[in-house]
Write a structure and sequence with these properties.
The protein is an alpha/beta fold and about 375 residues long. It folds into two domains: about 100 residues, Enolase-like, domain 1 (2-Layer Sandwich); about 200 residues, Enolase-like C-terminal domain (TIM Barrel). The protein has 13 helices and 15 strands. The protein has an eight-stranded parallel sheet with strand order 6-7-8-9-10-11-12-13. It has a three-stranded antiparallel sheet with strand order 3-4-5, with helices on both faces. A hairpin with a 2-residue loop joins strand 14 and strand 15. Helix 2 packs across helix 4 and helix 10 runs parallel beside helix 12. It starts with 14 loop residues before the first helix and ends in a 17-residue tail after the last strand. The N terminus is likely disordered. It binds magnesium ion (MG). Magnesium ion (MG) binds next to loops.
């Protein structure tokens, strides 16, 4: 029997040459070439998008709207043979829609250039509007980067695969109804109660839920209270053990700083705080900020906000919209920077089309797979 010959890539066989080959291969993967019109150049980053409808397991109700489904936009950026994906969850409140987000992506499809790692330069080429769409582009580029270097995004960012447990949203309803739904939320140690019905029953809602659960409670008023209503309700919520109150007053309410001065509970602002430029003013009216990628325009700006908030002594909460696991995966990458996490968007869906985020002991852990670590379960029927 012939002895097996060592392969050309065995240890000791021209290591310098193999290393050169490896480096060339890696460089080719990171910067794939395109061959067009007889010339060779680094391939452009291509971008496409489509609208998708996500069905909720149950109707969501907050102070200003209710719905059974949410329209989002899935964005794909392609570089060579690899693709990265991101999700836009446009916010009605700011005049955004799935249609406007899609139009934004299509309008900017030729502006990504040929280097998916050049996030700062790409960010400057994108018009400063349609923040959910920008977040989808940012997430897709991070996903692509991770796949190119075979690392999960949280590692690329120098962060840990950990974070606080997510809260579970109890939509606005009658006190008994909210209590009934709270008893079902056995997988969660933190419940976020939506308040602000304008019927004088908000404290009763919290009291009803408090009576049936030991879970930590937080409330989100979605801008629905006046200063007097807030001043009356907050001490009662403090007595019921509520941990903090999110956005009690309308965004920009001139009474915000005064309420911060008298509130026995920490106040977190959401509608008041979108991007880095808002954070300093939020320190006047709140004890913490709620960062959402759909408001910030992506992971990169969200991290800037978290650090700015820390410098100003503010707490940091990480929130989400109704969105699939693709959008939640992007946020989960930076959860370790935050005091509070409210990333239940994908868990509220009848079915999550982008599984991969792992709910572990109440924590929404990002995958340890490359990029954002999620894959679309049902192939696009196009
Ligand atoms: Mg909120």
């Amino acid at each position: 029997m012939a002895r097996r010959q060592p392969s050309r890539t065995s240890v000791g066989d021209a290591p310098g040459r193999n290393r050169t080959c490896d480096l060339a291969l890696r460089r080719r993967t990171l910067y794939p070439l395109s061959y067009r019109r007889g010339t060779t150049s680094v391939a452009r980053v291509e971008m496409t998008a489509r609208i998708a409808t996500l069905d909720l397991a149950e109707t969501f109700v907050i102070s200003r709207e209710s719905s059974d489904s949410a329209e989002v936009v899935f964005v794909e950026v392609q570089h060579g043979r690899l693709s990265g994906f991101g999700e836009a969850a446009p916010i009605d409140r700011y005049g955004e829609s799935a249609e406007s987000a899609l139009a934004y992506v299509e309008e900017h499809a030729d502006l990504l250039g040929d280097d998916p790692f050049a996030l700062e330069a790409i960010e400057h080429r994108l018009a400063p509007r349609e923040w959910a769409a920008r977040a989808a582009i940012d997430a897709a580029l991070h996903d692509l980067q991770g796949k190119l270097v075979d690392l999960p995004v949280w590692r690329l960012l120098g962060l840990a695969r950990e974070g606080p447990p997510t809260s579970w949203t109890i939509w606005l309803g009658d006190p008994d109804d909210m209590a009934r739904r709270a008893t079902k939320a056995v997988d969660f140690t933190r419940l976020k109660l939506k308040l602000g019905a304008g019927d004088g029953q908000d404290v009763e809602r919290v009291r009803a839920v408090r009576a049936v659960t030991e879970a930590s409670l937080q409330v989100d008023v979605n801008e629905a209270w006046t200063f007097d209503e807030a001043r009356d309700a907050l001490p009662q919520l403090a007595e019921l053990g509520v941990a903090y109150c999110e956005q009690p007053l309308p965004a920009g309410d001139p009474d915000g700083p005064r309420l911060k001065g008298v509130s026995p509970l920490p106040i977190y602002v959401d509608e008041d705080c979108h991007r880095l430029s808002d954070v300093a003013e939020c320190a006047e009216r709140a004890h913490g900020i709620n960062i959402k990628l759909a408001k910030s325009g992506g992971i990169r700006e969200a991290m800037r906000m978290a650090h700015a908030a820390r410098a100003l002594g503010l707490g940091v909460m990480l929130g989400c919209m109704v969105e699939s696991g693709l959008g939640i995966a992007a946020a989960a990458q930076i959860a370790s920077l935050c005091n509070h996490v409210d990333l239940d968007g994908n868990l509220l869906l009848a079915e999550d089309p982008w599984p991969g985020v792992e709910l572990s002991d109440g924590v929404q852990l990002p995958s340890d797979q490359a990029g954002l670590g999620v894959r679309q379960e049902v192939p696009d029927p196009r």
